[in-house]
Amino acid sequence: MTGRPPTDAEPPLLIACALGIERFALRRGGRGGRGGAAGEDAPRVVTLRTGMGPQAAERALTEALREGSVTERSPVIASGFCAGLAPGMRPGDVVVAEATRGHHAAAPETPCRDNGPLLRALRERGLTVHSGLLCGSDHVVRGAERAELHAAGAVAVDMESAATLGAARAAGRRPVAAVRVVVDAPEHELVRIGTVRGGISAFRVLRSVLPVFHEWHRSLLLPWR
Q1: Taking Cα atoms as reference points, which of 47, 15, 167, 176 lies closest to residue 102?
Q2: Rounded to whole angstroms, how far apart are CA atoms 214 and 219?
Q3: What is the rounded end-to-end Cα distance, in angstroms, of the chain?
Q4: Of 84, 150, 163, 194, which is most buried, counting CB atoms within 10 Å of its CB?
């Protein structure tokens, strides 16, 4: 990322994801519509690949905010894939976090207070959307550990969202959100047959959500609490 935005410019949206395939999906989501290198009517978007894991996410987000391609007012969305924890979840379902919580036992929660427009817009597109606590982890979660996290109140788990939003809020008061697409669920674990099909479904859904992120960003250009 290069270049410092003008001080009077609308704050660009920062979308953070861990993997190259996630960044590819989110950037391609604007083609043929309002997207990453989008038309004049779309707010500017910076898509940041952080690398895997909470430490990489925190470091990359902190550096991006310090480097100056986005501003101290820029909203931040953590996006990409996640593991669903609730029975009945399927690849391609969407998770919109009410809050994120890190992987340490005493980790604080980061609330996502501005997620109402995201929930409504995603559901209007006919997607299956879940909302609740998005828990962090520093490793892939399976089996009994998945059930334990769900019993503790989490609806989904990933490795970067909590660290990303925690770093974003530590750097200043700004809207934050986490929107993840389920690629792995209790009845559809990655080690099982059908993984490829589930991954394709998740990729297609992730590619479709970028216009919703733009709509959310526009709504935040009005005064927010």
Answers
A1: 167
A2: 9
A3: 29
A4: 163
CB-based burial, 161-175: b 16+ in 10 Å, e otherwise: bbbbbbbbbebeebb
Tokens representing 199?
């991954």
* Cβ atoms of 17 and 49 closer than 8 Å: yes
Please answer whether residues 136 and 53 qualify as being in contact, where contact means their C-beta atoms are separated by less than 8 angstroms: no
> Tens-of-pLDDT digits for all 225 residues of the chain?
444 444 446 788 999 999 999 999 998 755 433 333 444 455 689 999 999 999 999 999 999 988 876 777 889 999 999 999 999 999 999 999 999 999 887 788 999 998 999 999 999 999 999 999 999 998 888 888 888 999 999 999 999 999 999 999 998 889 999 999 999 887 766 654 445 566 888 999 999 999 999 999 988 876 544
Question: Two tokens at 11?
Answer: 């704050």
Tokens of 70: 């986005």
Pairing of strands 109-111, 13-17: unpaired
